[in-house]
Specification:
Blueprint (H helix, E strand, L loop, with lengths): L6 H8 L4 H12 L5 H37 L4 H34 L5 H10 E2 L2 E2 H18 L30 H11 L5 H16 L12 E5 L6 H10 L1 H6 L2 E8 L4 H13 L8 H12 L4 E8 L9 H7 L11 E6 L2 H7 L5 E2 L5 H13 L8 H14 L3 H11 L5 H9 L12 H10 L3 H9 L11 H11 L10 H14 L4 E3 L2 E3 L2 H10 L4 E4 L14 E4 L7 H5 L9 E4 L5 H14 L5 E3 L18 E3 L5
Parallel strand pairs: 3-6, 3-7, 4-5, 5-6, 10-11, 11-12, 12-13, 13-14
Antiparallel strand pairs: 1-2, 8-9
Helix pairs in contact: 2-3, 3-4, 3-6, 4-6, 11-12, 11-13, 15-16, 15-17, 16-18, 19-23, 20-22, 21-22
């Protein structure tokens, strides 16, 4: 059953009926069965249940916001401990409300003649003196109040210095490895002559021109060249080397460096631009005064402006913030002036560019191996450690050419040139390493933090899939919809909205297009597993069954030959499961038995994909939450 064929029906289930009308009709059904005392007690419990469900419904958006804020401070130990509990509690609330909507729909379809839907739901929630809804509310309140006491309700969605240190124009690396072609490409696009003598001659001619008061032609709009790539790939390092290249220094009259980060404040960065060339802080405090001062200083100058680490907030106000910042450079800077922007975001690159962006990918194999050896052994000669070299060669493919990954993992490896230590790191996934020892995943995690919350949910869910999985846009969007990650927007088809979410993640470099399909960069996949390690799990081998977290919601079963029927049936203990993607091939009768037990005991399942199953189990009808079921050759 493909979700695209049943979207209309599913959307109907998600529309809540009026709580009071439902309660009133249910009461009229059971009224004749009770005495006055029992009737009054039931009415009280019913009204309390109605009030509690309404409370949960009203509270849920605020709790999603609290999760979003907590993630910005999850580098703090106590917040990191509470965040998985908050997510688990919110999942429980969502399951409760979803089950209630199912009973609402059943009442609506069967009419007032049937009392069983109401009684079934009532009995499942009220068990003697124990009220499941009240228990969920108490847990949610307890966790939320602890986080709010830590100031989470006031956390701005900004990078603090512990998350994202400010970049500097000073060189961090004396050498730049494996970037000769990209560096030469950027130099040519900047218009920098290959021969430094030509640049110095240009400067002398410029001085002669100025002495005779001959003005040079000014540019109407300053050209913008973006350098784009994922975090840790070397964008800032390249920009620093360009800035310090003698040919660049002699070619431009004025060079301005600004670290933008995630706070594209026009006044702040204009002040920094002034300070970059004047070496003193501007005393003006009005944007208009600052821009006039900047415009006068750059008039008739050949400028190189480097804006390092630009994020999506530069595009707010429909791009007016960006245009406002650029205004002082228009019609005053000399021909040959240019702006160099480094960014992780393809969307930013495409919105600000006047020239095609330069894409930085990982370093090539041989160059990267030499760089890794320098980071690890202190030189490119590792002949004294043949066994460690062998292990290192197996570690390197995990790093996908990332210079930052090589530096940070190299630092971790060289703390102990011991075979056991190196083998432990080889056998671990990067996301499993202690994060205070590594920088690459926290660096990449900044990209995740800056996503809108609805895209965070969609991307972190992708940790469920194995590395190098080929994603198809509409197929993944259907599953996101079934999981409840896609918000309806008026009359727009919900599948179109899900596909739009996918494109937004592509524009932010979370997916890369490969031969018509899409993949997630391995390091980004590690980062996704880091942020969703309590919810998503991949079963690769029989030993993994003991490692499944108790709070798991989404499972992917790889086609291992070590899985037997008993292991697969053991998954029935994970009652909170919502997603099961089983790519294990079993004999038809065995898998049919397993599927029947899953559908009977895993009552919160929303998505099941079993490409090696040909028929539906009879127990499929017991799954109230199921929205997506794909079998072999199913469309």
């Amino acid at each position: 059953m493909s979700l695209s064929k049943t979207i209309g029906f599913i959307s109907g289930i998600n529309e809540c009926f009026n709580f009071f009308q439902w309660a009133k009709s249910a009461m009229s059904c059971v009224h004749s069965r009770w005495s006055n005392t029992q009737d009054q007690k039931l009415q009280g419990e019913l009204l309390q249940l109605q009030s509690s469900l309404q409370c949960l419904r009203d509270t849920l958006p605020a709790k999603y916001d609290l999760i979003d804020r907590a993630e910005w401070r999850s580098h703090e130990r106590r917040v990191a401990e509470l965040l998985p509990n908050l997510k688990d509690a919110v999942y429980n609330v969502d399951d409760f409300l979803d089950e209630f909507r199912w009973y609402e729909q059943k009442v609506a379809l069967e009419g007032n003649a049937s009392q069983s839907p109401f009684m079934d739901f009532f009995d499942s929630v009220i068990q003697g003196s124990f009220n499941k809804v009240n228990d969920v509310i108490k847990r949610l309140y307890n966790i939320s109040s602890q986080l709010e006491k830590m100031g989470l309700h006031e956390v701005p969605r900004r990078f603090d210095n512990s998350l994202r240190p400010e970049t500097s124009s000073f060189l961090n690396e004396r050498e730049i490895f494996g970037r000769d072609n990209e560096l030469q490409q950027v130099m040519e696009l900047l218009g920098v002559p290959k021969n430094g003598t030509d640049a110095r001659s240009k400067r002398r001619r410029k001085n002669n021109d100025e002495s005779t008061s001959t003005s040079r032609c000014n540019q109407e709009n300053i050209p913008v060249l973006p350098i784009v790539g994922i975090g840790g790939v070397g964008k800032t390092t390249m920009a620093q080397h360009i800035l310090h290249d003698p040919r660049v220094i002699s070619h431009f009259d004025m060079i301005i460096w600004i670290c933008v980060s995630d706070d594209f404040d026009g006044k702040r960065i204009t002040k920094e631009a002034i300070q970059s060339y004047s070496k003193k802080e501007s005393t003006a405090d009005h944007l208009d005064s600052l821009q006039h001062a900047l415009s006068e200083k750059v008039r008739d100058k050949t400028l190189l402006i480097i804006l390092d680490d630009m994020w999506d907030d530069a595009l707010r106000e429909s791009g007016r913030c960006w245009k406002r910042f650029c205004a002082p450079f228009s019609n005053v800077s000399a021909q040959g002036s240019i702006m160099l922007v480094t960014t992780r975001s393809l969307e930013v690159a495409h919105e600000v560019k006047t020239m095609e962006p330069v894409r930085l990918e990982g370093l090539k194999d041989d160059i990267f191996w030499n760089f890794f050896k320098i980071c690890t052994f202190g030189s490119s000669d590792s002949s004294d450690y043949p066994e460690l070299e062998r292990i290192g060669r197996n570690i390197v493919p995990k790093l996908k050419g990332s210079p930052l990954a090589a530096k940070t993992l190299g630092r971790l490896l060289r703390t102990s040139l011991d075979i056991a230590h190196w083998n432990n790191i080889l056998q671990s996934e990067l996301w499993e390493l202690r994060q205070h020892n590594t920088e690459i995943l926290p660096a990449l995690r900044l990209s995740y933090l800056y996503l809108p919350f609805h895209l965070k949910r969609c991307f972190s869910f992708c940790a469920l899939y194995p590395k190098d999985h080929l994603f198809e846009k509409a197929g993944l969007a259907e599953i996101w919809i079934a999981e409840g990650f896609v918000e309806p927007e008026g009359s727009i088809p919900i599948l179109d909205i899900g596909c739009q979410y996918f494109e937004e993640l592509v524009n932010r470099s979370f997916f890369q297009k490969v031969h018509g399909n899409y993949v997630i960069h391995d390091l980004l996949h590690d980062m996704a597993q880091l942020v969703s390690k309590h919810e998503c799990f991949i079963l690769k081998d029989k030993d993994d069954f003991e490692k499944v977290p108790s709070s798991v919601r989404h499972l992917f079963i790889l086609p291992s030959t070590n899985f037997d029927c008993n292991l697969l049936l053991s998954l029935c203990k994970h009652k909170k499961l919502r997603t099961l993607l089983c790519h294990r091939s079993l004999q038809d009768k065995t898998l049919a038995c397993v599927m029947d037990r899953w559908c009977t005991e895993l009552q919160h399942m929303r998505v099941i994909v079993c490409p090696y199953t040909k028929e539906l189990p009879a127990s499929i009808g017991k799954l109230k939450h199921l929205r997506f079921f794909r079998l072999q050759n199913a469309g």
